[in-house]
Amino acid sequence: MASNGTTGHTSPLPMKATSNGVFQGDNPLDFALPLAILQICLVLVVTRGLAFLLRPLRQPRVIAEIIGGILLGPSALGRNKSYLDAIFPQKSITVLDTLANIGLLFFLFLVGLELDTKSLSRTGKKALSIAIAGISVPFALGIGSSFVLRATISKGVHATSFLVFMGVALSITAFPVLARILAELKLLTTDVGRMAMSAAAVNDVAAWILLALAIALSGDNLSPVVPFWVFLCGCGFVICSYFIVPTVFKWVSHRCHEGEPVDEMYICLALASVLAAGFVTDTIGIHAMFGAFVVGVLVPKEGPYAGALVEKVEDLVSGLFLPLYFVSSGLKTNVATIQGIQSWGLLALVIFTACFGKIVGTVVVSLICKMPISEALALGFLMNSKGLVELIVLNIGKDRKVLNDQTFAIMVLMALFTTFITTPSVMAVYKPAKRVSKTDYKHRTIERKNPNTQLRILACFHSSRNIASIINLMESLRGNEKHGGLFVYAMHLVELSERSSAILMVQKARKNGLPFWNKGQRSDANHVIVAFEAFQQLSKVSVRPMTSISSLSDMHEDICTTAERKSAAIIILPFHKHQSLDGSLVTTRAEFRWVNRRVLQHASCSVGILVDRGLGGSAHISASNVCYSITVLFFGGCDDREALAYGVRMSEHPGIRLTVVRFYAEPGSLGEIVRIDADSHADKVVSTDEEFLANFKEKISEDSSITYEEKTVRNVAETIAMIRSYTRCNLFLVGLMPDGEVALALNGRSECPELGPIGSLLISPEFSTTASVLVVQQYQEKVSPNSTLETLDESPNRD
């Protein structure tokens, strides 16, 4: 560690690791470990806080981390000398930089894992042309602007190194940042998104090659032979890695089996390889992160091994160590050095040159390739995003004294500005055409004139906890041979995050606009696919597993859009609570509650919310072993009719017994049940209900598996007691908003608006039952499907 003089010491000494504590007179901030802990905590609080504030603007987290680094540095808080000497003293910078570079090393390894070399080889001529234009034009303009900077604020720097660094800095497109922006804007699977990802991947590889060249040229040794040997050894390292790394890790990957934990030794092998590669490239004279990136690119992506590596590494690196790199960069950035008209003019020149080169170069080539003007503009702005890779280039240039303080500050602000404008610019110039509602989408409900038509269901789940109950619920819907069949789309709902694993999953996208698992590639299979494929083989149900990855704020859009595209009759959603070991319901994630409510509001078909209390246990039950008792509580109204239609479909399974309970208010009853004045709407609902029930009773007259009962109640207490007498069943089917006098008396008991009064009653703590509950809302074309829900709950912001 480099030694620096500190106040109070007669000779410059390195910082000791740990203190003896304040009670023995030691100041913890004079020691490396407690000071590093404080620095890390401060960085996390600032960067995560800024990320939260910038989330409504849909900015990638890298923006918050860059701004946070600048705020903690001499540009803002660092103006206070006492703060800077106490929290980020000069003697601690070596430790901070070491931790930051270790994080950078493994993050670049993750970036390499995100890049699929096979997709690069399949890059089309159009994407390749756009990538070349996106590199060459800004590179040339960067060289041009470097002459202006050398003549003004960068006098005396090494000419060749400065030219190359400026060209690389302006021509970079940050592949990881671009992937997250595309996924956030739901453009990843559009033509623009696919083109941007292909071009950015080519750009990324070219940028690393140019950066290696720039590093080789930026050494202190003025001999022209040294850069040649550095570059030659770098090429030799890549060639050796190309033959060694894939061979070793293919052997490791073949020894890792799907569904089994990856051996710790194999994880350690990968981590050690990253460090060893970093040591080799640093010894050569190229930055250590170059070796880590090469290893990440060459690790085979097939099988569970790559996914396990990402899962083990990403949270610690991205969440803890990587933000330190932004602070390390921020401590070198002093915006105060940009003074006077000349300096601000040069900042404007650099920003204009960067944007003009990337956007105009990309747009011109896109138009030549006959892309629409809106798509060409969107592609130009997308390719203009910078981010972490830009900061890496600038920091290397600063460390090697190619960039001085003022030039460094100008370039950091340029990177911040170009990345910040990407999302709003793309949203302004490119709006994908909305899908027109399908005219042939007839069966939007389970209740239909011809019950023998095919039933399509979109069943959603958050985790493997929901899979067994979803499969058992689908098994009970198979019915008999006379039906047109059952088709299930099983959608895994995954929150889009900054994690590399989320982006890796998003990249497994198909052309229909939503991310899907590819069933044809067994290497990508996981326990989710295996479970549903096993169910499909054991039953006569067609199952299509899929994955939707989006932010929680617009996850409902994926669900509703998929339901319409697949002509689903009903969407099944898991309740946001799950059953604990003691039988009580505990919240899984409160955010999923708002997802469910938005689906109820916007769905173009019926919706069911499943409160799972272990329907059928924790495993799939075969058809011969199904033995369920299902109860439909019927009060009246369209939602109750839909619930009953669902129950009738389930009752056709030979292992299911259905009980339908029709509730009436006793004539002349007093108290909580009040009489409703007759009007045309109420009369129509009653007549529809009676007609539906009459047809139902006629069909089940000779079916011994279905029991129909009518119960007359006088007050709420009698109603609850009557419902309690049916709690020994396996599943309750109820409507979201039942009509009628009895249901009206229960409305005040609705604690969960998305479950309605009856569903809320059945899950309340005082209502003891082990039965699962499925709450159904029937799609209504003329009336807003959320009209009743909105009366109970205005919006999540008011809760």
Structure notes:
- With 799 residues, the chain is an alpha/beta fold.
- The chain contains 29 helices and twelve strands.
- The strands form two sheets. The chain has a ten-stranded mixed β-sheet with strand order 3-2-1-4-7-12-11-8-9-10, sandwiched between helices. A two-stranded antiparallel sheet has the order 5-6.
- Helix 16 runs antiparallel to helix 17 (405-420).
- It starts with 31 loop residues before the first helix and ends in a 7-residue tail after the last helix.
- Residues 1-12, 509-525 and 783-799 have low confidence and may be disordered.
- It is a multi-pass membrane protein.
- Belongs to the monovalent cation:proton antiporter 2 (CPA2) transporter (TC 2.A.37) family. CHX (TC 2.A.37.4) subfamily.
- Residues 486-625 form the Cation/H(+) antiporter central domain.
Radius of gyration: 32 Å
Low-confidence stretches: 1-12, 509-525, 783-799
Strand order of the largest sheet: 3-2-1-4-7-12-11-8-9-10
Report how far apart the termini are.
54 Å
Give the fraction of residues assigned to helices: 40-55%
User: Strand share of the residues?
Assistant: 5-15%
- State the total count of DSSP E strands: 12
Class by SSE composition: alpha/beta
Q: Please, what is the average pLDDT? A: 81
Tell me, what's the shape?
Answer: elongated
Major sheet: size, sense and barrel closure?
Answer: 10 strands, mixed
Secondary structure tally, helices: 29
Transmembrane segments: 31-50, 62-78, 98-115, 127-149, 161-183, 195-219, 225-245, 266-299, 344-369, 408-430
Membrane topology: Multi-pass membrane protein
GO biological process, one term: potassium ion transport
Domain Cation/H(+) antiporter central: 486-625
